[in-house]
Specification:
197 residues, 10 helices, 76% helix, globular
C-alpha cells in the first residue's frame, strides 16, 4: 500500500464536517454526540494502543483515558488537525507513559523475540491464519515506536505527515522508522515462514 493509496482513502470533507459538528455538540455536553464518537473511535484506538501495550487492562485504561480527554477537553480541539490525528496523538502519549508502568515489558519483548526466533511448526503449508499469527509475532519484536508507525500506516491507513503529527516527530523520522520496521519484519517473517515450510 503506497502513500497515495492512504491519501485516496482519507475521509471526505463531509465526514470531517460531521465530526466537527459532533465535537461542537460534545463541547455543549451532548452525551449522544460523545457516544457516537466513542463508538467510532474506541475500536480503532484499542487496536492501535493494543499494538503498543501487552496488558489488556492497560490498553483499556489508555483508550478510556484518551476518550475522556475528548469529553472533558473538547474545547482544546481547535480543528487545526483532523480529529483522528488529535485522538491518536493523545493515545500514543498516554500509551508511552503506560508502557513504563507495564510489568515486565522489556522481559516480555525479549521473550517474544526469542519465541519468534525459536518457534517451529510441524505443519506444512501456510494458511491465512498462520500468516496473520506470524505477522503478529513479528510485530511483537518491533520497538513501540516502530510498531506505532506500522500500525498507523497499514491498519489505520494514515499517511506519514499525519503520523508525524501524532507521534510528535518529523516526517523523515517516520520514514526512517518505517524503513527499519519493514527490515525487522522481513527478517522475523522469514524466520517464521521458514519454520512452517
Amino acid at each position: 500500500m503506497t502513500q497515495n493509496d492512504h491519501q485516496a482513502r482519507r475521509p471526505t470533507a463531509r465526514q470531517d464536517d460531521e465530526e466537527m459538528g459532533l465535537v461542537a455538540a460534545v463541547r455543549a455536553r451532548d452525551l449522544r454526540a460523545f457516544e457516537q464518537l466513542y463508538r467510532r473511535y474506541q475500536p480503532r484506538l484499542a487496536r492501535f494502543v493494543g499494538s503498543l501495550l501487552r496488558s489488556p487492562g492497560l490498553v483499556e485504561e489508555v483508550v478510556n483515558d484518551t476518550l475522556m480527554v475528548l469529553w472533558q477537553k473538547a474545547s482544546d480541539f481547535t480543528g487545526a488537525s483532523r480529529l483522528s490525528t488529535w485522538l491518536f496523538a493523545i493515545a500514543y502519549r498516554k500509551a508511552v507513559r503506560a508502557r513504563a508502568r507495564e510489568p515486565l515489558a522489556a522481559a516480555e519483548d525479549a521473550a517474544m523475540l526469542a519465541e519468534v526466533a525459536d518457534d517451529s511448526s510441524a505443519d506444512a503449508g501456510l494458511s491465512r491464519d498462520r500468516t496473520r499469527q506470524a505477522l503478529q509475532r513479528a510485530m511483537g519484536v518491533l520497538s513501540a515506536e516502530h510498531r506505532a508507525v506500522v500500525d498507523l500506516t497499514y491498519f489505520h491507513e494514515i499517511g506519514y505527515r499525519e503520523i508525524a503529527e501524532i507521534l510528535g516527530c518529523p516526517v523523515d523520522t517516520v520514514k526512517t522508522r518505517m524503513f527499519h520496521a519493514r527490515r525487522h519484519l522481513r527478517r522475523a517473517m522469514a524466520g517464521e515462514l521458514a519454520d512452517w515450510i
